[in-house]
Design goal:
The protein is of the alpha+beta class and 659 residues long. Helix content is 49%, strand content 18%.
Length: 659
């Protein structure tokens, strides 16, 4: 198989840029009366021009023949129904989802969030907080009550009461009783976005105004700020704290970690000691190695500080105590913050999984509301609202038994896309599980309807990307055809060539002249960094000593002085050693770089035919190409192809002129 000849279908996503189409769109050729146009031919030719290695394929006459062959194969694939294959459908859908991300997000907003996230990544904030919990969909009255409660706590802190005491007494974060509100150090993407933003905007020592997140209202005190320490990879040996309060057990644990430390100083292997003595079951069998981590990701600040305090790989700490036990930590590697260009993709992924993604979605939705006309059937909407009762709050509301009455249009987008009323009812039924407290019920329905309408706008936009963006449509068409072509070639050519052993054998016999050896030699090559060793190897070559015998004489238990490579070299081969002659004998000593070499030609193999086992891979490849060429000829008989020669001459002249 010549990969260049199917590059039209397989090298498709390399360039998403749209080419300027100055030529008038005309029918270039038809396959069974299905038209194919000049604009696509011109675009694909230009797109693949730099990818083809065979200069003949740049010839437009030959390229047209290849292009017609490509379209014939796609027609054959569709005729066989390969487009209905489940695997094909899923792969195409997956690719479209990935590609559409470039069109279904606000690039300007995304870039701003990436830049903001990267700037915040440079710092680590240490903060404490007091949480007043509040449901996301709380009533205005409950929201105001929670806000004032948080505001009162803030006033107490500003008046001089200890923040830690206030956290213990007022915070509804379950962990506050133990940590007194202290969250430790964190950087970007570690907290919900609103909390993170407030923390990074609050100066060291200051206390923020109440900040709303999905958990409720937070009052945040920023305790410290420092440069981000990046991430680190370490191994550790751990002795757990005894469960009893017996001082003897504690002394034994301390003694054990100290004995291990002494063994390390005596030169014993860290990994072996971790495997044998560490009581961290998750890491002991791995030589004590822990997953890579950054500040605030472990539940022990003491451990993190000791780990980041190490500066040299493979150096280890003295024994130290954490709340879990006693440790010795060995540094494996530190990973500083990468450059923005290296982190952009990672940051983009984090943003899409983070609360920040709402900003991108909201920005796009706002643009879509300006772009498309949205018309709601108010009578139908009123009918739906009348159906939803207060039973919704208890989860006992049911859909109407007769949904036929709601098989009418509720909302129309862009005068084309109609959404039925029952779709919104179904959405309401699913949202009932959220147990929203927003009242009265009419306001709750309005709240959910806005989200529903926003979702429908985005669905409509996504479904019409091919119409909105020609370059998106082009890439999808090419990828669609490429997948079909791959499946078709695998079925009709590649698998057949591998499985048809008789056909392969006959093809090899008929084309034996293509598979010939040039003159070859069986050669031994000795190499050493020492000239005297190379000379000694040459003397042993002259005595017809074997490679193993020579290595046995010249190498010792402490040093490998000589390496000997035995191989068969064909005349003209890329890896042919210097000073080689295609006759039996021993070369002079020669030097390349730091090494001295000597060659011994043991046997000369004359030119002659190769066996099929010598070249099976190439024969299979050639046989696949042979089958494909004959198959395309058969496809030209199966389908009626008509080329508009006058149009081809015009498009050819235009392409050559612009190139």
């Amino acid at each position: 198989m010549n990969i260049n000849k199917i590059i039209l279908g397989l090298a498709l996503a390399l360039n998403c840029a749209a080419f300027a189409q100055t030529e008038k769109k005309e029918v270039l050729f038809t396959v069974d009366d299905k038209p194919y146009y000049t604009d696509e031919f011109s675009r694909v030719y230009k797109k693949n021009l730099d990818l083809v290695k065979d200069e003949s394929q740049k010839d437009l006459n030959q390229y047209l023949d290849l292009y017609i062959g490509y379209k014939l194969k796609i027609n054959k694939a569709n005729k066989l129904g390969l487009q209905y294959n489940t695997k094909y459908i899923n792969e195409l859908k997956s690719y479209r989802t990935q590609l559409s991300k470039n069109y279904t997000s606000d690039i300007k907003v995304t870039k701003a969030l990436i830049d903001e996230g990267y700037i915040r990544y440079q710092k680590e904030i240490r903060a404490s907080h007091i949480l007043i919990t509040l449901d996301e969909n709380a009533t205005p009255a409950d929201t105001l009550k929670a806000y004032h409660k948080a505001l009162d706590v803030r006033k107490k802190a500003l008046a001089g009461e200890k923040f830690e005491d206030l956290a213990v007494n007022f915070s509804q974060d379950p962990s506050a009783k133990e940590n007194k509100g202290d969250l430790g150090y964190f950087s970007a993407f570690r907290m919900v976005y609103a909390f993170e933003t407030a923390a990074f905007k609050t100066k060291k020592g200051d206390i923020s105004m109440p900040v709303r997140t999905r958990f409720g209202y937070h009052v945040i005190k920023v305790v410290d700020s420092r440069d981000n320490r990046g991430e680190i990879s370490v191994a550790h040996i751990m002795i757990l704290k005894p469960t009893s309060n017996n001082p003897a057990d504690t002394d034994k644990a301390k003694s054990t970690i100290q004995d291990i430390y002494t063994k390390l100083k005596q030169g014993e292997n860290f990994e072996n000691l971790a495997n044998q003595f560490s009581q961290d079951k998750n890491s002991a069998s791995k030589g004590g190695v822990l997953p890579r981590f950054g500040s605030g990701q472990l539940s022990s600040e003491e451990f993190e500080n000791v780990a980041f305090g190490l500066s040299t790989p493979n150096k280890y700490s003295e024994p130290f105590e954490s709340q879990f036990g006693w440790h010795i930590v060995k540094l494996i590697e530190k990973y500083p913050i990468k450059k923005l260009s290296e982190m952009e993709r990672e940051l983009d992924t984090k943003i899409r999984k983070d609360d920040r993604s709402r900003l991108i979605t909201n920005s796009l939705t706002s643009k879509l509301r300006k772009k498309y006309t949205v018309v709601r059937d108010e009578k139908m909407y009123a009918k739906i609202k009348a159906l939803v009762t207060d039973k919704y709050y208890t989860g006992s509301w049911l859909l109407p038994s007769n949904m036929k009455d709601f098989n009418e249009t509720l909302v129309t987008i862009d005068s084309k896309y109609e959404v039925k009323a029952f779709a919104f009812l179904k959405a309401l039924e699913g949202l009932q599980k959220a147990e929203s407290k927003l009242k009265p019920i009419s306001k709750l329905v309005d709240f959910y309807y806005k989200d529903f309408e926003d979702t429908q706008l985005n669905i409509y936009y996504n479904d019409n990307l091919e119409k909105e963006f020609p370059e998106f449509s082009n890439v999808m068409d090419e990828y669609r055809d490429g997948l079909l072509l791959f499946d078709l070639m695998e079925r009709e050519i590649w698998n057949k060539a591998k499985q048809d052993t008789l056909g392969l054998s006959n093809y090899f016999k008929e084309n034996q002249s293509k598979y010939q050896w040039k003159t070859r030699v069986e050669i031994l090559t000795a190499s050493s960094t020492k000239e005297d060793i190379a000379k000694a190897a040459k003397k042993l070559f002259k005595k017809d000593q074997t490679a193993d015998a020579i290595k046995g004489v010249l190498n010792t238990n402490d040093a490998v002085n000589v390496m000997i490579k035995q191989e068969i070299i064909e005349e003209g081969a890329d890896n042919m050693p210097k000073n080689i002659t295609f006759k039996k004998g021993i070369s002079d000593i020669y030097k390349e770089g730091e090494f001295y070499f000597v060659n011994k030609v043991e046997k000369v193999l004359p030119a002659g035919p190769k066996s099929i086992d010598d070249v099976r891979g190439k024969v299979i490849n050639d046989y696949q190409q042979y089958l494909e060429d004959n198959w395309v000829a058969e496809l030209k008989k199966e389908f009626k192809v008509e080329v508009n020669k006058d149009v081809f001459e015009k498009i050819k002249a235009s392409i050559l002129k612009n190139n």
